[in-house]
Every structure is written in C-alpha cells, then in structure tokens.
Amino acid sequence: MDVFVIRGGTPLSGTFTVNGSKNAALPLMAASLLTDEPLTLQDVPELADTRNMRKLLAELGVESETGDDSTRFSSDPTGPCHARYDIVRTMRASVCVLGPLLARRGEARISMPGGCALGERPIDLHLRGLRALGAEIDLESGDIIARAPAGRLRGATLFLGGQFGSTVLGTANVMSAACLAEGRTIIESAACEPEIVDLAKLLTAMGARIEGAGSPRITIEGVERLGGTTHRVIPDRIEAGTAVCAAAVVPDSEVRIVNYPADALMAFADRAAEAGIDIDITDGTDPMRTKCVVRRRGLLKPVTVTTQPHPGYPTDLQAQLMATLCLAEGHSVVTERIFPERFMHVPELGRMGASISRQGPTAVITGVKNLVGAPVMASDLRASACLVIAGLAAKGETTVNRVYHLDRGYQTLEARLLAMGADIERRDDKTAPVKIGAA
Ligand code: UD1
Hints:
Helix content: 25-40%
Strand order of the largest sheet: 22-23-1-24
Bound molecules: uridine-diphosphate-N-acetylglucosamine
Strand content: 25-35%
Distance between the termini: 11 Å
Number of strands: 24
C-alpha cells in the first residue's frame, strides 16, 4: 500500500492546472446508458473512481475507448442490468447508474451501497424520487430491484429534500431518468451543485428538455429517445480549493492556478478571503475556467465556517480548510451540516500538534504556531488531502498512510505538488521508493 512522505515547510511556487471534475464525470459517464449512440466525454480525470465506473459500465454492456483527452462510450441497450456488490462497495457513486438503467432498459438491479467513513449514507431519497416516476422497487438479497411498469417511467411532481437538504446524486438519478419518462417531471428541492448543471448541459445536448438546473426546481419534459454528443467535463472545484489551501498553508508561497472554477467556489472564496488568503483572478473570461494567483496576506486569520448544500460552503472542502486553520491566529469554528460525522481527520491533525475540540457536528480549532510531522492515517478521500496539506506545513517528516483514498479523487497530486517545490514522495509501505506519478 502506498504512503506519502512529506518534509514540510517548503514554500510552493509555480502553476497548478485543475483537472476535470470527478463528481461531475461519474454521472456523466452513467448517462451513456441513456442512449444507443456513442457519447464522447473530454477531460474525464484518470482516477480509481473513474476506472471503477468504466469497469461497472463495461459489465452493463457499455464499451469505452480512451483517446488522448477524451473517452468514447457506446452502450448496448440489450446489455445486463445488474450492478454487483463487488463494484458498488468500492464506489458508492455506482448508484448513479440506477436512474439511467431504469429509464432506458426498464429495469435495474443494483447492490445496496453501505455506509462509509462519512457515516451512514442512505439512498432513500433516490428511491423515493424514482418511485414517484412510477418505478416498482423491491429489496432482495441486498440488491435493489427496480422496474418501470410497461417499460417506461411516467413524469410526476416530486419533492426530493431530506433532513440534510438536497441530494446531489439523487437529483442526478431522478433528472436523468425523467428525461426518457412520459410527460413532465418537476423536481422540487433539487440539488443546485455545478455538477448537476453540467449533467443537465450534457443531457440537453443529447436531446433532453430540461429547465431550471442549478436552481431548487428543475422541470423536465420527457422525450422518446436521446442521442449521442461530445461534452467537456467542468474543472474539479474541490481539487481547485485543495490547491488554494495547500498554497496558503506555507508562508511565502505563490501559486498560479489554471482552470480555477471561480463561479462554483464563491462560498469557499468568501471564507478564504476572511482567513487572509488572496485569490486574484487574472483572467476571468470564462468564470468556470479562470486563471488566478493565490498568496496569503501575513498571518492566517481564524474563521467560522458551516458546510451547506451549494451555493453554501462545500462539505468536500471542510477538512482541507481545517488543516489550514490549524495555523491561524485564534479560534476558528467549523460546523458540518451535511455529514455530521465527517471529522475522522481531527484526531490525526491532533497527532501533528493541532488543537481541536469537537462537540457533535462542530469543531473548535485553536491555532498553533507550528504543526509537527508525524505518521498519520488517511480515512477517506478529502481527509487524506487535509493530512497532505498539514504535512506541507509541518516541521519535520509526515507519513500519510493509505493514500489509496486520495488516489480515488486526485490524479498524481504528489507529482503536481513536487513540481511546485514541495518535498513529497510516494513510497510503498515497505519504504521502497516508487515512481512519482504512479497511481
Ligand atoms: C455527493 C458527492 C460527495 C459530496 C456530497 C455532498 C459525488 C460522487 N459525491 O455525494 O463528494 O460530499 O455530494 O455534497 O458526487 N441523504 C439522505 N438520503 C438520500 C441521499 C442523501 O438522507 O437518499 C443525505 C446524506 O446522508 C447526506 C446528505 O443527504 O447527509 C447529502 O448527501 P448527497 O448530496 O446525496 O451526497 P452524494 O450525492 O452521495
């Protein structure tokens, strides 16, 4: 198993180019099931999760062929409809094949995803939405078995909010399925995330009729069939925010970010500015693909942050900002409203000298002068990024174990940090150095 060894304290300087978004790419790839024509996606990041999605799609009769910067998907509508536990357990996002399968093939069998390091993660809202479209859904041997009576779903008006607000992949599933349903669907309390807007753009280019994506009410007029198209995935806002936190954590760093999706990161930029981090947009022609320069103004300032559904502060950038706030001058308060148990990084930061006390969904961080290097354990994707950021700032050597979590969402992160001057290397846990960039 690979680990990262980081010797902290080196300022970062250079250019960081943001890759295509993992969370946008996964439902876009699943949308290939909705059409019998080839679908080409550009800028799909090369990650464990996208590889797993290609594997799952292959089991469902979707061939994929990867070229220089694009992947072409061709679905056989008579292919199997069963997403097996072996794959679903490696990637919860496998659930986003449910809506497309049901809509195009009239049936789907998907292993029920379990919980994960973020806590219990139910899919009741996905099922509620699909049932509202007429799907008959049963649970058998740990699998969800869904059927569209007479082979086609029916449009409906439905409410998709839950106790934590909207659901991103639930909205993706119901919106994708409604495109081929008979009649009009209105999704109320839809997720407003940029990844949903990107999916609506793709579906519209395939012939779907969708209005309101990016707002809490999405209206879809069902069509008989969808065709193929070519689409470029939006840049990854979480990777971009991670790069900003990395640039801010070591004094005297200056990092230029290319493909910075400023339009999708307003809440993050607001908190970063308050913390004393300057993000100067130098080219804002396309607000989803700007160029910017990141520097921090003197000492970091403490801030109050609450995670919320978009356009609020994203839960996927909670851990990374917390690593940075460990070095702010005073008390910061971080409240997690999406996944109240998402604090597995807190004890690990404590092993590096951070002072954090947690009560329920809130953590109070008292800034310290220095973090100190230590062996730490990554527990999930964004927690791993948080520990890498802490390691970049810490005095001495930090070993981040289980970086396979990080490899799910960041393509060759260590190589890109190394290119900006960070002292970081990937090794296997038997300490043999491995080639930088191998993921
Ligand atoms: C997506 C992202 C994930 C991000 C999360 C929240 C992908 C592949 N993953 O996950 O990185 O952290 O959005 O921004 O895009 N919930 C229910 N019932 C449901 C579904 C969700 O109660 O049926 C709850 C969840 O437990 C959570 C909240 O709703 O508390 C939001 O979850 P959701 O938006 O569905 O997360 P995902 O789409 O799975």
